[in-house]
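User: Here's a protein and a ligand (NAP). What would the complex look like?
Assistant: Let me lay out the input and then the predicted complex.
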Amino acid sequence: MVTAKKFVLVKHFEGEPKPDDLKLETEELPAIQDGEYLVEAEYLSVDPYMRPYSARYPLGTTMIGSQIAKIIESKNPDFPVGMRVSGYMGWRTHTIVNMEGEHVFDSPPRLLPEMKTLMRMRFLSPSLGLGVMGMPGYTAYFGFLEVCKPRAGETLVVTGAAGAVGSHVGQIGRIMGLTVIGITGSDEKCQWLTEELRFDHAINYKTQNVEAELKKVAPNGVDCFFDNVGGEIASTIIYQMNAFGRVSICGSISAYNNDASEYPKATIIQPAAVSKQLKIEGFLVWRWADRFSEAFKTNLEWIQKERLLYRETVTEGFENMFKAFAGMLKGENIGKAIVKP
Ligand code: NAP
């Protein structure tokens, strides 16, 4: 008999998530049936989408989320003991996976390729399947390349630039030969972007005037804008775009703690969109689900050639899931925020 620990949603988030909105419970798991397998979480992800998406689920639901988990018992030959899966099992330590069950994002768990084999000599943590080699990595790859259609010599601005998606997008921009400007929330993050990831410029939106700084570092205007944040910063950037610029709207984290009835107001963007004939497109990464293997392969090649660097902010202890989640929403992470139970 295996006892699982899990976090259950007991109150829908209002404003900033609070520790009491979730409750840590235990659950005795039954014996597995034919076709099922039992997994133990090795790494759990905390992501911005959890804040708005959790409102779609009834109270009592296990908090939504993805994890990398090891198969510890199996009655499914396609999922043998010892292999790892990446899936949306939620915030829980142990899970019985039934392939016929319902899956968040309509995405059943997938076997994770053996990272050791992939990298030959170099150790690659399976946790990368939650970040640079998983959903955030696919988001960066398709959301930037397919929506912005970048060309060498152009100028790219990325918001949320030191996070999982943003840090990846900026580096693809650099690989493609663009001038890359990242906007983020601390000097330490700015330094990481320019000194290690080789962004051309970084702006700290908490201490610097984004409009004035952008005019200095992008005097010829912006061609591609990858937006993770929304709000007034996004409007400011859009007003510095060149004719036929492309905006990829990936997220709007600056408003995730607001109810739809009280979304923040920002300067309207239509005058810039019309006069500069901008293309502005939102996307969900699942649009390209049938092409994820392409992004996986290319991201892996870039990692192997050390053209794509990554960083993880790891919180230890399953009981600290909430702390990691709340911290990520406040910007405490650099790169991908994960939890090691
Ligand atoms: P992340 O960037 O690693 O972490 C969130 C970051 O957001 C924080 O570190 C913080 O960094 C920043 N932030 C928080 N509040 C902010 C505010 N008020 N203004 C500006 N920045 C703020 O998270 P991620 O997983 O890479 O996700 C980034 C964005 O991509 C999110 O908007 C997410 O919803 C979106 N996303 C979309 C898709 C899709 O399919 N469309 C898929 C995945 C992710 P600072 O220190 O810089 O403030």
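Summary: The pocket of NAP is lined by residues 47-49, 136, 139, 160, 162-166, 184-186, 189, 228-229, 250-251, 253-254, 283-285, 328-329, 331, 333, 337 (CB under 6 Å).
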